[in-house]
Design goal:
about 25% strand; alpha/beta; about 475 residues; 16 helices; eight-stranded mixed beta sheet; seven-stranded mixed beta sheet
Length: about 475
C-alpha cells in the first residue's frame, strides 16, 4: 500500500534510514536477518516536481498497522497519511478525491464518527481566514459525522506547497502541489520537550541531545526485552532514550567519578532515570574500552550497542595506563587495599582510530547475531575523499550512514551496522589486518588526535569593500541542504 509520508524538515540524511529501521522492527519485511543487508529496503518515490529533500515522500508499506506503528514511534515523521487525492490546483484535487474509491472513503464519513480537518503548508504561511476558506471548499466530500477539534475519531489533512522559488532556505519547489488525506499515524512531539537537556538533572559537556538520542535508539531498533549497552555512557543520555522505549540498559565509562559519584547523591546518572520514572540501568561499570572487563569466552550478550565515542572535539578519549606506564618507564602497580575505594587510575590519550577498532571488536564479540551497532564517526569536510572511508569489520554490514553537518569544516556521521556473522579467531585476525590497513591509509588526524585544531583553527578571512552591491545578494537565504 502506498502512503504519503510527511517529514519534519530537519536532519535530512536521517529520515529514510529511521523509517526503514522502524519498518523492519515492526515486521514490514518477511525476513529474520535483522537488517537491510539482505536487500530489503522500502520503496520510495517523490511527488511530481519535488526536490529529493522535500518533506513529502510516498512510501510503500505492507499495511496500515505498520504505517501507524512507524509514524507513532518515529522522531522525524510528522505524519503518515492515506492519500485521497492530489493536484496542482484545487480543481485537480477535487477530481482526484471524487475518483478515489468510495469503499475506501465511506467508512470514515459515517454519521457515528467524529472528524477534524487541519490545513498545513510548507514554505508559506496561511492565515486563519484562508484556512477556513480552504476547508469550506471541501464541501463536495460527504462528511456526515460531527466535528470534534480536540479528540476526533478521524483526522484529515489538507497540505500544500507553493512555487516559492529557490532563495528562502527551503528545497526549491517548481510547481504548487496540494494533498488531501486521512491521517494514519503521527509523531508525538511532546516527547522531545519532556526530555530536553536543559531540564535534565545531571549533564556533562558531551551529553547527547534528546532528539538525536531517540533517533539512535530507533536506528538500533530498541524495544522492550532488548538489552542495550553504551561503552561511553557519560551522563547516560543515550540510555535514557533506550529505557524510554522499554529496553534494559547497561553502561560503562572510564571515569569512575561520572558513573559512581556524579555531583552528589541526587545529581548523578541514576537520578536522570528517576527523573523520568524510567527503569534504572542493570549496571554501570568503571571500565576501559581498550581493556574490556568481560571474562574470556563471554559472547553475544547485547542486542544493541549505541554510543558516541570520544573523538577529540569537545572531549578526548582516554585509556588506562598513564604515559610512563605505556612507555615502559615504570612497571605495573598494585593499588593497596586501604586506597581502593577512592583510587582513580592513571589514564593516557586514546586515539580515535584505536578507539573505533576496539569498539568494533567489542561489538563483534558481545552483540547477538543480527544485533546493531550505532555510533557517531567524525568527518573533516575539507577533504572530500573521507566521505566513504568508514571503519569496517568482517562481522558487520553497514546499513546506513547519515551525515549531520556541524560547521563548514566538520560533520559527524551516524553509522548503523548489523552483525551478520559470528565472531571467530579467523574473523579476529581478519579484523586486525583491516584495522592496520585502515590506520595506514586513513587521514593522519585520526592517529595524531588533532581533529580539535583542524575544526577550530582560524579560517581564511574574506573582506568585502563597503558599498559593494554583491553583499545584499549574498546575505539572502539560500537552500542549505544538510545544514538543516
Amino acid at each position: 500500500m502506498w502512503f504519503l509520508c510527511v517529514f519534519y524538515h530537519r536532519l535530512l540524511d536521517y529520515r529514510k534510514p529511521e523509517v526503514e529501521s522502524l519498518a523492519l522492527m515492526f515486521g514490514a519485511f518477511d525476513s529474520d536477518d535483522g537488517g537491510q543487508d539482505g536487500g530489503e529496503h522500502l520503496e520510495w518515490r517523490l511527488p511530481e516536481h519535488h526536490h529529493p529533500d522535500s518533506p513529502f515522500h510516498f512510501v510503500d508499506l505492507p499495511s496500515e498497522d505498520v504505517a501507524r506503528d512507524i509514524a507513532n514511534r518515529s522522531i522525524l515523521v510528522k505524519g503518515i497519511y492515506e492519500l485521497w487525492g492530489e493536484g496542482n490546483n484545487y480543481e485537480e484535487l477535487e477530481d482526484a478525491i471524487k475518483d478515489y474509491p468510495d469503499e475506501r472513503k465511506l467508512p470514515y464519513l459515517s454519521p457515528e464518527s467524529t472528524f477534524r480537518i487541519t490545513v498545513d503548508s510548507f514554505g508559506k504561511v496561511i492565515s486563519f481566514q484562508e484556512q477556513n476558506e480552504r476547508i469550506q471548499s471541501l464541501a463536495y466530500i460527504p462528511f456526515k459525522g460531527q466535528v470534534n477539534l480536540r479528540n476526533p475519531d478521524h483526522k484529515f489533512w489538507l497540505m500544500e506547497t507553493d512555487d516559492y522559488g529557490t532563495n528562502n532556505g527551503l528545497p526549491p519547489v517548481v510547481q504548487k502541489r496540494i494533498f488531501f488525506g486521512r491521517e494514519v499515524g503521527g509523531a508525538d512531539r511532546k516527547l522531545l520537550p519532556t526530555y530536553q537537556l536543559k531540564s535534565r538533572t545531571y549533564l556533562g559537556p558531551t551529553a547527547m541531545d534528546a532528539e538525536m538520542a531517540f533517533l539512535m535508539a530507533n536506528q538500533a531498533m530498541v524495544k522492550p526485552g532488548k538489552l542495550v549497552y553504551d561503552p561511553f555512557v557519560g551522563t547516560g543520555s543515550i540510555l535514557v532514550a533506550a529505557a524510554h522505549f522499554g529496553a534494559m540498559t547497561m553502561g560503562a565509562d572510564i571515569d569512575i567519578r561520572v558513573v559512581r559519584d556524579g555531583r552528589g547523591p541526587d545529581c548523578n546518572v541514576w537520578s536522570n532515570f528517576k527523573q523520568y520514572g524510567l527503569p534504572t540501568p542493570i549496571g554501570l561499570l568503571r571500565a576501559d574500552n581498550n581493556l574490556p572487563p568481560w571474562r574470556p569466552g563471554l559472547k553475544e550478550v547485547f542486542d544493541a550497542i549505541i554510543c558516541d565515542p570520544p573523538y577529540g572535539v569537545r572531549a578526548g578519549g582516554r585509556k588506562s595506563g598513564g604515559r610512563k606506564l605505556l612507555k615502559g618507564v615504570v612497571g605495573p602497580y598494585t593499588v593497596p587495599d586501604d586506597k581502593r575505594t577512592d583510587h582513580i587510575p592513571s589514564t593516557a590519550a586514546y586515539s580515535l582510530v584505536e578507539c573505533v577498532h576496539d569498539l568494533l571488536d567489542l561489538a563483534a564479540k558481545m552483540l547477538v547475531l543480527n544485533g546493531r551497532l550505532v555510533f557517531f564517526y567524525p568527518v573533516l569536510r575539507e577533504d572530500e575523499s573521507t566521505e566513504n572511508h568508514f571503519p569496517e569489520h568482517p562481522c558487520f554490514v553497514l546499513v546506513s550512514a547519515s551525515e549531520q553537518i556541524l560547521s563548514s569544516r566538520y560533520s559527524r556521521v551516524l553509522l548503523t551496522m548489523v552483525k551478520s556473522s559470528p565472531y571467530t579467531e579467523e574473523i579476529e585476525e581478519e579484523a586486525r589486518l583491516k584495522h592496520l590497513e585502515f590506520k595506514e591509509n586513513h587521514l593522519k588526524w585520526m592517529e595524531d588526535g588533532n581533529l580539535h585544531s583542524a575544526v577550530f583553527s582560524p579560517g581564511e578571512s574574506v573582506f568585502v569593500a563597503e558599498g559593494d552591491p554583491k553583499v545584499s545578494k549574498e546575505t539572502k537565504p539560500k537552500y542549505r541542504g544538510k545544514y538543516v
